[in-house]
Amino acid sequence: MQNDGNKVVPLKAGADHPGSSPVARLPVVLLQVRDRAAQQLKESLQTLFDNADDTLFEMADRAHNNAEQNIFFEAMRDLRLKRKSIERNFLDKFFEAFLRLGQYEVAEPPMPEPVSYDKLALVHNDDLERTVAVDAMVVKVMSRDGIALGQLTTRLNVLIPQPLTDETNPLGPTLLCDYFLQAGRSLGVEIKVKLIILKLFEKYALSNADQLYEEANQLLISAGVLPELKALPSRRSTDRIASVPPSSEALRADNAAILQATESLDKSVQDVFSALQELLVHVRGHLTPRPESVTDARPISSQDLLRLLSHLQQYVPKAEESDDFDLRAQLEQLISRVSARSGKFRVVGTMDEDVINLISMLFEFILDDRNLPSSLRALIGRLQIPMLKVAVIDKSFFSRGSHPARRLLNEIASAALGWGGRDDTQRDSLYARIDQIVQRLLHDFVDDPAIFTELLVDFLAFTSDERRRSELLEQRTRDAEQGRALAELARQRVQQALNDRLLGKTLPQVVVRLLQEAWSKVLLLTCLKHGDQSVEWTSGLQAMDDLIWSVESHDEPEARQRLLELVPGLLKSLRDGLSSAAFDPFATSEFFSQLEALHVQAFSHVTKAPGTTTVGDQVASDHGPTMMAVVEEIVLVGPGEQIQTEPSMQLPADDEGLMQVEKLR
Predict the structure, then answer these.
(1) What is the residue-wise DSSP string for 183-224?
(2) Per residue in 175-184, pLDDT tens?
(3) Which of 204, 337, 491, 651 is least surrounded by Cβ atoms within 10 Å, i.e. has the fewest?
(4) Cα 20 to Cα 42: distance, rounded to the nearest angstrom
(5) Are 56 and 193 contacting, i.e. CB atoms less than 8 angstroms apart?
(6) Alpha-carbon torsion 226, 230, 236, 237, what sign?
(7) Where are the domains of the chain?
(8) Ramachandran angles phi, psi of 108, nearest 5°
(9) H or E, element range at 587
(10) What percent of the chain is predicted at pLDDT more than 70?
């Protein structure tokens, strides 16, 4: 092992055993906890990726279109290629977190900054959806295995130099999710696929968190670390913690042991709430005021208050009848009836009364906002009791801008503010979705705040879909307007080109008609597709110039040779152009037949000696093509427009029909 002559240092050695000194400072039992947890997490990730293909394939099979299907197929391919890298990066992050436990100045691992839902315009929607999904996963683990995690955190605090909380515990759901997100940053997939993969992580890794905590706690108990903490019964994967309630003595012992680990987190919440309480001194006593003659008034416990609120929740009036509903007055009447029935005067405790006052003021502020449509104001007003209940349960409602219930309320209010700018379909769907949330909370919310996370995720998905739909409609409208503007500019450009070449000239009628009705469309498409500075545009103009020249009379000797060289290429350009514009093939064939006759006549004219007249010339003159003199500007019309004026036709003075009319006079 000590080969000084070997100067080659394996580069991977540093990655496999980063910082040998911090590892040496970690207790052996902590290394055992780390290694056993790492093995279980590795197996969970392998199971996740083994099942990811099947899950994504099923999603692709249910896709609505090819584009959506391709998204899932690309995700399957990306996962296969990067699977090993993600597994390795995840375990690297996990080991790094344990290394930090042995350092005397523990730098907190990088955590996503809390999202301010009061300024959602500054938050990317994908980040928001991912954050909400992770929060929901963490809440589920904490509600299911929070006590076991708390015991583990308490025991770890005995072994390490710096205090640890459940959120900074390397085995806690918060950091496990963070490891997975960081390890999967290289995945180039859309947010919907990332959310699916996160759900797989929850299913195959976080659902087994109880095993992680149970084995870690058992290792620490065997090493003599706080064995007095009561061990929790094992949980089956389908069980919830509520189904096996621990005894009151065990709960009291565990709560006392865990208190130290959670003290710093609770203190920040309490500080915020205490500051709010100081501002509410002048409004206290308005709810169930205590008569001076009563000296034995008993405060209602928070649990009893929740039961009273749940009773009131069943009788919240419908939206159209909620204007006269006063929560504080209703609660006061209910408490008075409870006092009369029990024979003891009951009052709401100071802390709970402050919560009631804060929630009441919050809703008064929202419902006084005249920017909110009255129908939606009434709907939002029905959320007052559910929001009050969650605030009584969890005081962090006031201190955490990222609290799911607070986010949900902010999201609903934000969506309601933009209600007036939506079409009827969107307004109806938004009202129905908010009403669905209200009904769900009024009927299903008892004392489990996890319902707010679920509803928030659903509502964010709904508003995201609506936002994308609106953006798509707006983009289509902008594209249509821009297309019309570009078409108008192109039409004016073609119109100018036609007038520059035809105005004031007398040409065969068939040529004028072709240029105005058919070749103008060829030029219009060319201008829209390639622009008026392109080679294609120049070629289109050149074909028009050559056509006009080929049917005009020419006396110069070199005209014959030029006509011979010009006609084949001209005919090809005309055929290709008319074909690209999908011009009527029958009309095209008819035009080329007439054009051939014009070219034969023009060729005969330039081959005879100047100044001579033949019998053929006389016949051609008598039976020549109908001529048209363009004396007014050509005006091209767009789709759906009507022709207001047409170019005036003026027959030449030697026209046979005109001369016969003159003789009749």
Answers:
(1) HTTT----HHHHHHHHHHHHHHTGGGHHHHHHHHHHHHHHTT
(2) 999 999 999 8
(3) 337
(4) 23
(5) yes
(6) negative
(7) 19-230+246-265, 281-448, 490-664
(8) -65, 140
(9) helix 585-607
(10) 73
